[in-house]
Write the structure tokens for this entry.
Amino acid sequence: MSIQKEYEGKTVTDATIEACKDLGINREDLNFEVISEGTTGLLGIGGRNAVIKILNQDANKAPSTESASANVEPIKLEKLEEIFNQIINHFVDDSSIEVETNDRNVLLKLKSDSNLGFLIGKKGEMIKNIEFLLSRVASKENSESIFVSIDINSFREKKDKELIDRVVTLIDKVISINRPLSLNPMNSYERRICYLEIEKNSEVTYKTKEVGMLKKITILPKVIDKNLS
């Protein structure tokens, strides 16, 4: 089953940044439709995220690593690392940073014994803002779109693993009781992780329902066994 990919952000621009980072492509190669431009709400309360839908996804796939590495100049990272180190050193005395690159994507892995929860922020908002800033710096330095992600003390990796475990458990239960079950409402990044895991199992499918600014995924058995219902 193909996934109709959607991405969310505070603005349409933020949503396109998330899409480009996930798909590993430049902004000019992104073909999308605006589902919702989002609203700020009253005094910042009751606002809704902007939502875009990717069109012609197959045409937007990033080139293979082999072809990309043959034609693309290495990313200039000096300025990016300098600014990120300045931000971190302002708050943390002892830390280590590893840098990974994949085509036009940069992953900064920050590790420290200090409590870095404030850098992640409520619902990850702080880390998203830093990623946006560093993406702009790297893009300007390289004269093309570069997308920067940050993983603090393996926070993102741990959260993704916890979510996958929840999805697998729910899939097994749906198959066992032969009834639909739902996950809590999630953002687009979390939903993509769920979709990919659900699609690995041929006995279930899914549907989504909008809940405020988020969406809820319901996992359903593909074939209803009336003897179990």
Summary: The chain has three domains: 6-62, 73-153, 157-221. DSSP finds seven helices and nine strands in the chain. The mean pLDDT is 79. Strands lie at 6-9, 32-36, 50-54, 96-102, 105-111, 147-152, 181-182, 204-211, 214-221.
